[in-house]
Design a protein that fits this description.
The structure is a homodimer. With about 550 residues, chain A is of the alpha+beta class. Chain A has a domain of about 120 residues: Uridine Diphospho-n-acetylenolpyruvylglucosamine Reductase, domain 3 (2-Layer Sandwich), CATH 3.30.465.10. In chain A, a hairpin with a 2-residue loop joins strand 17 and strand 18. In chain A, helix 4 crosses helix 12 and helix 13 packs antiparallel against helix 14. The longest helix of chain A is centred in the C-terminal third of the chain and has 22 residues. The two termini of chain A are about 45 Å apart. The N terminus of chain A is likely disordered. At the A-B interface, strand 9, helix 8, helix 11, strand 16 and strand 18 of A face strand 9, helix 8, helix 11, strand 16 and strand 18 of B.
């Protein structure tokens, strides 16, 4: 982490229309270089247009005013309202870049205590104000969007000031943490204790603990601790019907797990204010290697190696299989072969036996293991080495995406999970459907795939689309590609999302995937906890049955 | 498994009042020996009384008759009704032994297909008949009991004929399995494929897959896969409002996990009819050792070793810490020291590095590792060796308990989970409270403790009580001990149950432990799925708010 987080409201430096903080990301020269590279790849003219300026906006006047008691923590400044209109999907950034902000929140609240969150909720519940909980604002599925059909008054509830580690239990390796803390500030507070949450989604710099929990965020462990879910020891959730405080326990068998109703609830049942989280000792031992899988079926043979690894009980922390396109983009290959980036880490023991057996499995599956493989590698957490380079590129990607938006280039991803028996056919089908759509809609473009997380019974493939769009038609073009991809995911037996959540954008897919009777149960639970339906309506379920 | 399961209804051989099948368990001579041993230990006269016979019962006449279409799969034979009145807690067996069966189910249904389950549910929903789903009948918390206040017609729904593996996916290591299958029959069907669910609760022989899922059963993995929860890939659940069929996926981030609402729902939301379950390859490599912890604080020093192990990332499959009393009872020690039984297993790789590091951790924590430790041991799954002996004793225990019931000796257990920071004080407090209660109520008796499952952030201690009761007063005496123990668990920060579920018996503790607003949400979900409230009322929540 070279860039430190700057809270939006205190410093006003978060970029309201795109990723991260003003001034970070590619320089103007770098942006031009990126544009030229893309132009060269697709053989089209690409010219970055100037980004929007706050002065260009004419936001609708706020339709509500806070009561005097809340005036100090509620803002209707244009920068706050514009910055809380959307999340950070490609669609969101394009709309903001186009100065299309028709439905900003009327007010943005910045509580700095649970009591203030409760006071804001009370006000909104009494006054019929729709509340959109907002953590780091990095949703890529319309989960924090304030354009809500039927909502006449909307408040965005920014939890960013709830940013402290409140209590730390070194013995059990757990901490009680406020939900609004962003990734870097959280790690800064844990580091002096030799601990880490070790949850590194791509949005790490600008996403919050509460957001991770509410959206079942995927971190950077490739196996075992893939989603945030298993790190949650207990929760505090404010609902209009009262506080839900679950008991801090390593495990329990007492009824359906209460935490699991709120993990993934995407702000529709309550506002997560704090959580006891399970932590890790900071790793001291690392071992890793890159394995090549050649040939036209290299990616599928790599997938077979990963299947065996995922069922071996070795639990690599990193098991990132890149297809040739993805390997080329990230500099891990030349585009002729698939690459498996394999890593083990531990705070307790050397990992020679683990890596040796893993490489044996890879060789048996036809992988090419380099001579030097098996030596300890300075890896994740360090800023050096190939893993450090990957990590920087990984965290820079959203900044680069802002440049591509300026160039009318579609840069978006989708991800899923599917069982191993279905994977080969599923993957061919999804790739073909998406490539066909890209070609039909954009004329040219690339679709790449990597595995982000793997399981004994399946994999989570992650697809990246890059394609030149017609300026002004980006959203329609992307919508057509996304629809084709989503149809392929669901028809092939996958999930509409492995770790990007549902929000509003994934509703059509989610509505097909989840059982209707479960939606009825969820709607009933929502009515019990949020009787007036003020919380994030339209996310996950429709307000009325 | 030497004894094969005999389905209750087809062979009629399940012991209606106690554990297992007629004729299994201790012989009359062995029973007398057990009685003498207990008599000697407590210095009291102990004399087994004769068990109840079916002919001695005068069951209430059935209050309902099935429609003609269901007559073939619904029974009101006395043996079926008596056998489905209770589960298998100490309290249950005592009541059955006393011939106290005032509220047997009016009918017992034995569907052998999902369509038949649906037909039974339809009948009951239309006729206002309370339905108690029944898997293997091994509940120890009143979860399958048919004495339900306010219920005028009760049917026990025995899923035992849904006992087949329907589909097997070797590639993903998963199978679609009917929910009524008991442990041995399930393993018999998986074994030819080299696979195992490897879920071995103590009730293994007479508990079902659906029961395990509905109660969040704890298996025999000490780490990682402790509860059945993580083995569930997808579920089919029949509810009065329709079928809930979740998508088969290795993982998803699409909203709150639907499966998690039904895992632990204890029959109040629907009837689980089948599940895709994640399986394991049958282990080929094993390594294990026993480690001694001497001195008056040996158990607590052993706990510290286990804490370090649980945080090491080594993931032992067996990590059973026995206090001196527990070690003596199971033959693993002489009562002077605590014993840690440590085991690793794998289908993929030799485990020398794993065991070596684990033993190093134990030595560092003051454990005495025998010279021979570290050699591969024929262990769980084999019938030989100390682990095999433990396993036989473990599975025999419920049979022995029937003998103790006949002798008016209280033999019951309770279990919990608590974070590591609290554990030492918690354990002293629970032991003191329980021992005080045993002494006060019974004059003498023992309380022993072992760890069944451990986590990076805490342990699941399991307490066993053995005490001589006054004939005729066993239930009141146990209730007083149980109340003292439960109070200590909850006041100390534990859970009312780690893997025995809530049922009706744990309601007072559960009602304190779970957040009220979560109970409201659960009640609302139940109203949506079971509008007339026919399913297992009183379990987990009260029917009315």
């Amino acid at each position: 982490m070279t860039e430190r987080t700057v809270p939006f409201v205190t410093a006003g430096r978060r970029k309201w229309w795109g990723w991260g903080v003003e001034g970070a990301g590619p320089s103007p020269e770098q942006a031009r270089a990126i544009a030229q590279t893309v132009a060269g790849r697709f053989g089209v003219a690409v010219e970055p247009r100037p980004p929007p300026r706050l002065e260009e906006l004419a936001l609708r006047a706020p339709r509500i005013r806070p009561p005097a008691a809340l005036a100090a923590i509620v803002s209707d400044e244009p920068e706050a309202r514009a910055g809380h209109h959307y999340g950070k999907s490609y669609r969101d950034v394009v709309r903001a870049f186009r100065r299309e902000l028709p439905s900003p929140p009327d007010q943005v609240a910045f509580p700095s205590s649970e009591a203030e969150v409760a006071a804001v909720l009370d006000w909104c519940d009494g006054a019929g104000i729709t509340v959109v909980p907002y953590g780091g604002g990095s949703s890529v599925v319309g989960g924090v969007e304030t354009a809500i059909p039927g909502a006449s008054k909307v408040l965005s509830l920014d939890l960013g000031r709830l940013d402290r580690v409140l209590e730390l239990d070194r013995t059990s390796r757990a901490a009680r943490i406020q939900a609004g803390v962003l990734g870097p500030a959280l790690e800064d507070q844990l580091r002096p204790h030799g601990l880490t949450l070790r949850h590194f989604p791509q949005s790490f710099e600008f996403s919050s603990l509460g957001g991770w929990i509410a959206t079942r965020s995927g971190g950077h462990y490739a196996t075992l601790y893939t989603h945030i879910d298993d790190f949650v020891e207990s929760l505090r959730v404010l609902t209009p019907a009262g506080v839900v405080a679950t008991r801090r326990l390593p495990a329990s068998g007492a009824g359906p797990a209460p935490d699991r109703l709120f993990i993934g609830s995407e702000g529709i049942l309550g506002v997560i204010t704090e959580a006891w989280m399970r932590l890790q000792d900071r790793p001291r031992f690392r071992a890793g290697a890159s394995v090549r899988f050649d040939g036209p079926e290299g990616f599928l043979r790599g997938a077979e190696a990963v299947r065996r690894l995922s069922q071996s009980g070795l639990f690599p922390s990193n098991c990132r299989l890149l297809d040739p396109q993805e390997a080329a983009t990230s500099g891990a290959g030349d585009g002729s072969h698939a690459v498996l980036v394999l890593g083990f880490e531990s705070a307790d023991h050397a990992l020679d036996a683990w890596l040796a057996r893993a490489l044996e499995l890879c060789r048996d599956a036809g992988g090419k293991v380099p001579q030097s493989a098996g030596r300890a590698e300075r890896s994740a957490g360090s800023d050096d080495g190939p893993a450090g380079a990957w990590r920087r590129a990984f965290l820079q990607a959203p900044y680069v995406r802002d440049v591509l938006v300026a160039c009318s280039v579609i840069a978006e991803t989708f991800e899923t999970a599917v069982s191993w028996d279905r994977f080969p056919e599923f993957h061919r089908y999804v790739m073909a459907a998406t490539r066909d759509a890209v070609k039909r809609v954009c004329g040219s473009g690339t679709v790449a795939c990597r595995f982000t997380h793997v399981y004994p019974d399946g994999a989570a493939p992650y697809y990246s689309v890059l394609a030149p769009a017609r300026p002004g038609s980006e959203l329609e073009q992307w919508a057509e590609i996304k629809a084709a991809a989503s149809e392929a995911l669901l028809a092939g037996g996958g999930t509409i999302t492995h770790h990007h959540a549902v929000g509003r954008d994934h509703r059509p897919g989610y509505d097909r995937e989840r059982p209707d009777a479960f939606a009825e149960a969820l709607r009933a639970a929502k009515r019990a906890l949020d009787p007036r339906g003020i919380l994030n309506p339209g996310v996950l379920i429709d307000p009325a049955a």
